[in-house]
């Protein structure tokens, strides 16, 4: 089994397939942080189903071929293995369709431009700090515009003292 298609299937499914699945998962997880948009879930589901299904349809027949004793690095194989080889080829085409769905997801997400909320997956945007400072500056500017009509402290203190004095005078009059 050492020098058979089993080795090819195992290494390619475990190393290439798992690595690419991890990379795609990372892209989906950090999509909001990278682009500031929500990704298209429909195309993401199609990508996942076709990519994983294609990977398994490509390499599962290679496991069977390895169990049957087909050696590696064979350019011409017996006709008995034609069905398994055809299944592996169709699986590769399905994997490519899954990758096309990934790129369609990227294109659709940038065309739709659905803005992600900040709580989406708990990942802040890269430019969140700049947005926060711009927000704070605008709030301060708005508050300065609102507070320009408010009297100064000395004027407010004088008004408060006058109201308090009038209230005391009123209480003294009403107490008599």
Structure description:
- There is one protein chain.
- This protein is mostly helical and 176 residues long.
- The protein folds into two domains: 5-122, no CATH class; 128-175, no CATH class.
- The chain has six helices and no strands.
- The model has no long low-confidence stretch (mean pLDDT 82).
Condensed summary:
It contains six helices and no strands. It is mostly helical.
Kindly state the mean pLDDT as a whole number?
82
| Number of helical stretches of at least 4 residues | 6
Rg (C-alpha, Å): 34 Å
Q: Uncertain runs with pLDDT below 50, 5 residues or more?
A: none
Q: What's the order of the H and E elements?
A: HHHHHH
Distance between the termini: 113 Å
Describe the main β-sheet briefly. Answer: none
How large a portion of the residues is in β-strands, by DSSP E?
A: under 5%
Instruction: Kindly name the structural category.
Output: mainly alpha
Q: How much helicity do the residues have?
A: over 70%
Shape: rod-shaped
Q: In the residues, how many domains can be counted? A: 2
Give the total of beta strands.
0
Compile the SSE list and pairings.
Elements: H1 5-29, H2 31-35, H3 41-68, H4 82-112, H5 128-147, H6 153-175
Primary descriptors:
rod-shaped; 176 residues; mainly alpha
């Amino acid at each position: 089994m050492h020098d058979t298609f089993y080795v090819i299937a195992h290494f390619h499914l475990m190393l290439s397939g798992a690595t690419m699945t991890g990379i795609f998962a990372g892209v989906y997880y950090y999509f909001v942080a990278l682009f500031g948009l929500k990704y298209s879930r429909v195309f993401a589901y199609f990508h996942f189903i076709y990519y994983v299904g294609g990977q398994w349809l490509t390499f599962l027949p290679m496991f069977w071929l390895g169990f049957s004793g087909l050696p590696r690095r064979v350019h011409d194989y017996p006709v008995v293995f034609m069905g398994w080889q055809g299944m592996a080829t169709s699986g590769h085409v399905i994997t490519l369709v899954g990758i096309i769905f990934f790129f369609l997801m990227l294109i659709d997400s940038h065309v739709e431009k659905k803005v992600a909320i900040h709580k989406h997956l708990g990942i802040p945007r890269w430019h969140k700090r700049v947005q926060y400072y711009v927000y704070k500056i605008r709030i301060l500017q708005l508050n300065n515009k609102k507070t320009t009509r408010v009297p100064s402290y000395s004027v407010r203190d004088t008004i408060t003292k006058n109201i308090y004095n009038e209230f005391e005078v009123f209480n003294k009059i009403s107490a008599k």
